[in-house]
UniProtKB/TrEMBL annotation:
Protein name as catalogued: ArsR family transcriptional regulator
Residues of the HTH arsR-type domain: 21-98
SMART domains from the UniProt entry: HTH_ARSR
Transmembrane segments: none
Coiled-coil ranges from the UniProt annotation: none
GO MF entry, a single one: DNA-binding transcription factor activity
């Protein structure tokens, strides 16, 4: 089994992220809930914000959020931690994250 740290994490430059990519990342209710959790409390582990899906599906959600420029991930000991790239994302797509977070607040628990 390969180590989760065997491959470096790809964090794209925000100017390389298209508007459709950003919208696609935010349209899924699980990813939207993950983003909302990180907006409330940055630096959470993957396990703390992982949606109720299989590990491969959760990994895919994290990868999509990273590829859309929403998520920064780093390893700390045995945990992978997460934070929103809020300032950068807001500069690239002003108001989009605020709108998404407002919609996330309307999702059922």
């Amino acid at each position: 089994m390969a180590s989760r740290t065997a491959n470096p994490l790809d964090h794209p430059a925000l100017e390389d992220v298209s508007f459709p990519e950003a919208l696609e990342a935010l349209r899924d209710p699980y990813r939207l809930a993950m983003v909302a959790a990180l907006a409330r409390e940055p630096g959470q582990s993957c396990g703390a914000i992982m949606p109720p899906v299989s590990k491969p599906a959760a990994s895919r959600h994290f990868k999509i959020l990273r590829a859309a420029g929403l998520l920064k991930q780093w390893d700390s000991g045995t945990q992978r931690l997460n934070a929103l790239r809020r300032e950068e994302f807001d500069a690239r797509f002003p108001g989009l994250l605020d709108l998404a977070l407002a919609e996330a607040a309307r999702l059922p628990d």
